[in-house]
């Protein structure tokens, strides 16, 4: 065998070394997948819709509920018949305003009771804010005339100077009570017409029921 020359040996060493050196990474980029291409071709409005739908869950949904509650405002306190009757009695120096209801679309008014307000400044508010108490008592007084599903209107009576005329009824929209000052329920009161069948708003004098207290005479019944 012929002796290996230095040049041949060097060439052989280079070939052996290159066999163990890794090749540089390929710079070739695979083409986008068909699904990726389809998503990219969709209109931008769909992407925005998707984001909006995701906001309905988790933190996004909570924020929306808070905004809705805030925009709706605080709920008005529920009034109790006994408390408003007591306030009516406390406002004895104020004018009594006759109030009533009628079925929407009809002309006949049914008297239900009276309201008072501090300094006579909240007559319409007194009707609107106490409309639930007025409606409840109206159904006690007129169970036949007012079916359970009746849609009611509330109003107050302005007396007439003519003895032959009852006066003029004025409709009160419920929004008047919704926009009333905070705490106005403490400045108004309602007293219903005495209902002997249930004992609501009844006065007793010398053992019998009377329509209303007369100059301090008579004892009021308690209502819930």
Descriptive report:
There is one protein chain. With 224 residues, the chain is α+β, with helices and mostly antiparallel strands. Helix content is 35%, strand content 18%. The protein has a five-stranded antiparallel β-sheet with strand order 4-3-1-2-5. Strands 7-6-8 form a three-stranded antiparallel β-sheet, with no helix packed on it. Strand 1 and strand 2 form a beta hairpin. The protein is elongated.
Radius of gyration: 42 Å
Class by SSE composition: alpha+beta
Largest sheet: 5 strands, antiparallel
The overall strand count is 8
The N- to C-terminal Cα distance equals 126 Å
Q: What is the overall shape?
A: elongated
Q: What count of helical segments does DSSP give?
A: 8
Sheet-strand content, in percent, reads 15-25%
Helix content: 25-40%
List the keywords.
8 helices, 8 strands, elongated, 224 residues, five-stranded antiparallel β-sheet
């Amino acid at each position: 065998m012929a002796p290996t020359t230095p040049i041949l040996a060097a060439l052989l060493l280079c070939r052996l070394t290159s066999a163990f050196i890794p090749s540089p990474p390929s710079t070739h980029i695979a083409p986008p997948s068909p699904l990726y291409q389809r998503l990219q071709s969709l209109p931008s409005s769909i992407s925005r819709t998707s984001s909006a739908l995701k906001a309905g869950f988790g933190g996004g949904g909570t924020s929306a509920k808070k905004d809705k509650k805030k925009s709706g405002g605080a709920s008005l306190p529920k009034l109790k018949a006994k408390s408003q009757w007591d306030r009516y009695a406390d406002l004895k120096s104020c004018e009594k305003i006759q109030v009533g209801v009628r079925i929407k679309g009809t002309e006949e008014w049914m008297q239900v009771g009276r309201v008072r307000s501090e300094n006579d400044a909240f007559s319409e508010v007194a009707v609107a804010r106490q409309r639930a108490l007025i409606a409840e008592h109206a159904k006690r007084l007129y169970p036949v005339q007012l079916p359970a599903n009746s849609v009611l209107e509330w109003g107050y009576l302005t007396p007439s100077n003519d003895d032959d005329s009852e006066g003029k009824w004025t409709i009160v929209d419920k929004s008047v009570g919704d926009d009333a000052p905070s705490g106005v329920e403490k400045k108004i009161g309602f007293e219903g017409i005495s209902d002997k069948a249930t004992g609501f708003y009844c006065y007793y004098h010398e053992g019998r029921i009377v329509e209303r207290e007369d100059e301090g005479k008579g004892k009021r019944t308690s209502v819930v």
